[in-house]
């Protein structure tokens, strides 16, 4: 089981929402009214922001169409989130190793051209080569819920996670995620540059 520094898990989401990466402050002013994928192309660590433009419900989950703009291209992903997610942090501030880590909590799927555009955007920003095509397979990372209360969607709020993406390149690609149902925004943020090739491998299904 993953061993995680609880201070680091809690600090990252706070930093995301108190820094220049606040999605509510960075709505791109353009004729389409869609938010920009990134704030700074040259940033040391990238945060990818998506507007949750549409949603549909299943018995156990909510499926979002998540889109944004990169340069002149619309990019996006289909993101499925379970309606009920167990808290991964106790009220005492400890990691709940038994209930905090689960697969299937958040799933990612291709939207076709928009998702291929996203892969191309990530490849360019990371300065790494890729096929430029997102896999047709559902991405189902291991998810840690860094929240101290259970989540029951579609409740309004801001919820933080850490994701571990399996890939063909190497170690799991570790990313941070924030689901903001109040602002209708989803964020994926880099933990470290060392996972860039791994994350691209997860997106494309290639080494």
Question: What are its keywords?
Answer:
alpha+beta; 207 residues; two-stranded antiparallel sheet; globular
Can you offer a commentary on this structure?
With 207 residues, this protein is of the alpha+beta class. The protein has one domain (6-19, 46-204). It is built from 3 helices and 11 strands; from the N terminus they run αββββββαβββββα. The protein has helices at 6-18, 113-126, 196-204, and strands at 47-57, 61-70, 73-82, 84-85, 101-103, 106-109, 142-145, 151-152, 158-165, 173-180, 185-190. A 9-stranded antiparallel sheet has the order 5-7-9-10-11-1-2-3-6. It has a two-stranded antiparallel sheet with strand order 4-8. Helix 2 runs antiparallel to helix 3. The relative contact order is 0.19. Residues 10-31 have low confidence and may be disordered.
DSSP strand count: 11
Question: Rg, please?
Answer: 16 Å
How many structural domains does the protein architecture include?
Answer: 1
**Sheet of most strands:** 9 strands, antiparallel
Distance between the termini: 25 Å
Q: How is the largest sheet built, in terms of strand order?
A: 5-7-9-10-11-1-2-3-6
Q: What is the overall silhouette?
A: globular
Share of helical residues: 10-25%
Number of helices: 3
Average pLDDT across residues? 89
Class from secondary-structure proportions? alpha+beta
Q: H/E element string?
A: HEEEEEEHEEEEEH
Low-confidence regions: 10-31
Strand content: 25-35%
Q: What is the structure about, briefly put?
A:
It is built from three helices and eleven strands. With about 210 residues, it is of the alpha+beta class. The protein has one domain (about 5-20, about 45-205).
């Amino acid at each position: 089981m993953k061993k995680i520094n609880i201070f680091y898990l809690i600090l990252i989401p706070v930093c995301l929402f108190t820094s220049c990466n606040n999605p509510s402050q960075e709505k791109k002013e353009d004729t389409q009214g869609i938010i920009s994928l990134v704030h700074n192309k040259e940033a040391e660590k990238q945060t990818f922001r998506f507007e949750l433009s549409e949603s549909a419900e299943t018995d156990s989950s909510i499926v979002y169409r998540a889109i944004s703009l990169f340069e002149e291209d619309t990019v996006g992903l289909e993101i499925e989130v379970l309606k009920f997610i167990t808290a991964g942090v106790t009220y005492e501030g400890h990691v709940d190793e038994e209930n905090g880590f689960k697969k299937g909590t958040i799933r990612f799927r291709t939207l076709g051209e928009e998702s291929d555009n996203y892969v191309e955007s990530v490849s360019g920003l990371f300065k790494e080569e890729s096929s430029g095509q997102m896999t047709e397979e559902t991405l189902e990372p291991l998810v840690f819920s860094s929240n101290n209360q259970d989540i029951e969607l579609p409740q309004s709020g801001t919820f933080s996670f850490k994701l571990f993406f399996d890939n063909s390149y190497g170690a799991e690609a570790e990313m941070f995620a924030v689901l903001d149902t109040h602002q209708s925004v989803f964020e994926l943020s880099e933990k470290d540059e060392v996972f860039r090739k791994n994350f691209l491998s997860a997106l494309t299904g290639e080494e």
